[in-house]
Specification:
The chain has 553 residues and is of the alpha+beta class. 29% of the residues lie in helices and 29% in strands. The chain is elongated and about 100 Å long.
Length: 553
């Protein structure tokens, strides 16, 4: 596979490119393969990277400000290897092997090791760094001799690096790009040879999200200290640590130093782990550990924000789809005034209503409520809607349709879910209404003279017993009568500062007061009364209202 270069700009952006041709040029001029016209630290034709046999070589093309490889200005063709950094203008170019495809063997946690810290072990924590006002502390040599205090130049590098990383990670990136950037910037800041970033999935398993290198063998003790105890660990020199120097991974990969730090958010939540190691030429310092610990904190906050943004975007899209499944407007039925209303208490919900016209002029009116809220309830609601629309066309009568619907629902419904369901079929010319109530809130039928009836009976809730039987009942909708179907989000609205619910009696009274209004205005009037009762308290459940009003003669 072709190697890659990661180009980091001063504005915080970065890009990863495969070296898939033998020569690539870079500079301000537009005729370069990689053109950066706004980087005035570059010459028009600044440098080139080209393949020479089996190796890659950097050429400076007589640029004004020069080209540096690992901080040293080059004067002629210079070979580069994975991990080398090329500086040109305000760009930093990291040369890397292509990231291997992630497999289950990329990281293996092994027993033993690190139970007793050695003289080469350094331990810190994010809390400790914050308590010290984020100052870089001094360190000790393996023999116990204090290291010199950190120089001002080192402190400036530390602060500058964190500022640059924070700016880079502030960009709104997809999670995959964010993982890649965190890995690249951590490797760059620490001068690491290999690294792996892991986060928890929804099942609380650690999953590799980005890696540079392969065949990592990490002590389970290290994992526990990082993930459970929120400690950042550094082994400066593996040759001095008896617990790790015999590790085959350490030997095979010529590891001199390694660090493992938690991806810890500001609320102390650890969402993953960042591991870096270095070759024999590089020994990590405590300053490196402090810096990577702080970078991991910044990264964890950004990762959580990106996750939340992705979830929010997915939920918004799901909400848009769900709203599209509900009727955009009721059908026109002579002599009948219809209106429907639905608002989920979250972005998506489990309430469902529908109007289904029959070819002979009849119309089915349906309201259902899936137990629970959010996405699981919304998925069940969508499944219910599809099955109802299919069964309505084939069922000989309402009772057999609901019986078949329950049998299908029960075969796929999770054990902790169920559905309340009400369906009525109205003959508009006569007002004859056939209905079946499967455990739903009994709709209220308010007669023209103000009397109130409830439509109960039919059978138990859907999704519990596959052999449950359902029956249909009949009623008459006369001119001036109003039938209101609702979910419990309407009647269970709680008065602010109390536990008192709005209730069916208040709903019946609200219907009586608005019964002469058109169906849409009736819904508005009922919602106003519920809102006045709640006095600003947000609904705890989805709210659905359907009004069926037979027009007067």
């Amino acid at each position: 596979m072709a190697p890659e270069i990661v180009i980091s700009s001063s504005d915080g952006s970065s890009r990863t490119l495969k070296l898939d041709k033998d020569r690539i040029t870079l500079g301000r001029s537009g005729d370069n393969d990689l053109a950066y016209p706004d980087d005035h630290g570059l010459s028009r034709r600044h440098m080139a990277i080209e393949k020479n046999g089996r190796e890659w070589v950097v050429h400076d093309q007589n640029s004004k400000n020069g080209t540096l490889v690992n901080g040293i200005r080059i004067s002629g063709p210079t070979s580069i290897e994975p991990g080398d950094r090329v500086s040109a203008g305000h760009l930093v170019i990291t040369f890397a092997d292509p990231a291997p495809s992630v497999s289950h063997e990329t990281v293996v946690f092994v027993d033993g090791g690190m139970d007793t810290p050695s003289s080469s072990t350094v331990i810190t924590s994010l809390d400790g760094l914050y308590r010290n006002d984020k100052k870089i502390t001094s360190d000790s040599t393996p023999g116990g001799t204090p290291r010199p205090a950190v120089s001002l130049t080192e402190q400036q590098r530390y602060t500058q690096t964190l500022g640059q990383v924070s700016a880079m990670l502030a960009a709104h990136l997809p999670l995959t790009d964010l993982f890649r950037m965190v890995m690249d910037q951590s490797m760059l800041a620490a001068g690491a040879s290999r690294g792996v970033l892991m986060t928890f999935d929804q099942s609380e398993n650690l999953v590799v999200r980005e890696t540079r290198g392969d065949a990592f063998r990490i002590s389970s003790t290290v994992r526990e200290r990082v993930m459970r105890d929120r400690q950042s660990l550094l082994v400066r020199d593996t040759s001095l640590d008896a617990a790790v120097r015999g590790s085959q991974s350490i030997v095979d990969n010529l590891v001199r130093s390694f660090m493992a730090v938690p991806l810890q958010t500001n609320d102390q939540n650890v969402i993953g782990l960042l591991y870096l190691d270095s070759s024999l030429l590089k020994e990590f310092t405590k300053e490196d550990l402090n810096m990577i610990t702080m970078m991991a904190n910044i990264a964890a906050v950004r990762i959580e924000a990106a996750r939340a943004a992705e979830v929010e975007g997915d939920m918004k899209a799901a909400g848009d789809i769900q709203r599209g499944l509900l009727p955009s407007r009721p059908p026109v039925v002579p002599g009948i005034d219809l209106a429907g209303y639905n608002v989920p208490c979250r972005t998506v919900g489990g309430d469902y209503y529908d109007f289904l016209p029959y070819p002979d002029g009849r119309v089915a009116i349906i309201v259902a409520d899936v137990a629970g809220k959010g996405m699981p309830a919304a998925l069940l609601m969508s499944s219910l809607q599809a099955r109802v629309q299919v069964l309505v066309e084939d069922a000989p009568d309402l009772a057999s349709m609901v019986t078949r619907l329950n049998r299908v629902i029960t075969s796929t419904c999770p054990s902790n879910r169920f559905i309340t369901f009400f369906m009525a079929v109205l003959e508009p010319t006569t007002g004859e209404t056939v209905y079946c109530n499967a455990g739903h809130n009994p709709p209220l039928l308010v007669r023209a003279n103000g009397d109130v009836e409830t439509l109960e009976g039919g059978g138990m809730i859907l999704g519990i017993l596959p052999k449950a039987q359902y029956s249909e009942r009949r009623t008459q909708l006369d001119p001036g009568d109003v039938l209101v179907l609702f979910s419990d989000g309407v009647t269970e609205g709680v008065k602010a500062g109390t536990d008192e619910e709005f209730g069916e009696d208040r709903l019946a009274a609200a219907i009586q007061r608005s019964a002469k209004l058109p169906a849409t205005e009736m819904i508005d009037a009922i919602n106003r009364e519920v809102a006045e009762w709640a006095a600003g308290t947000a609904p705890a459940d989805d709210v659905t209202l359907v009004v069926v009003r037979r027009k007067g003669l």
